[in-house]
Amino acid sequence: MLDLERDIYLRLNATGSFLWGAIEASDHPTVGELADRLVEGKGIAHDRALTDATAFADDLMQREAVTAV
């Protein structure tokens, strides 16, 4: 993922890429909705999916790649 404004390239793992695609495909998805996508798309347990989605969203917000609405 490339941040043109700050000239930073962020490398995403497979889960991060999947979640970024879910963010791009939805209109302001919640972390819970992202977790649901992981459960459906990757077949992982919901509690693990929620942990992963939360960590991903938190990291993106810290990097100012996304904002909470």
How are the secondary structure elements laid out?
Layout: E1 2-3, E2 8-9, H1 14-25, H2 31-42, H3 46-62
Antiparallel strand pairs: 1-2
Helix pairs in contact: 2-3
Overview of the molecule:
The protein is mainly alpha-helical. The chain has one domain (12-62). It is 59% helix and 6% strand. It has helices spanning 14-25, 31-42, 46-62, and strands at 2-3, 8-9. A two-stranded antiparallel sheet has the order 1-2. A hairpin with a 4-residue loop joins strand 1 (2-3) and strand 2. Helix 2 crosses helix 3. The model has no long low-confidence stretch (mean pLDDT 90).
Strand fraction: 5-15%
How widely separated are the two ends? Answer: 21 Å
Tell me the count of domains.
Answer: 1
How many beta-strand elements? 2
Compose a concise summary of this entry:
By secondary structure, this protein is mainly alpha-helical. It contains three helices and two strands. The protein has one domain.
Give descriptors for this structure:
single chain, 69 residues, mainly alpha, two-stranded antiparallel ribbon, 2 strands, 6% strand
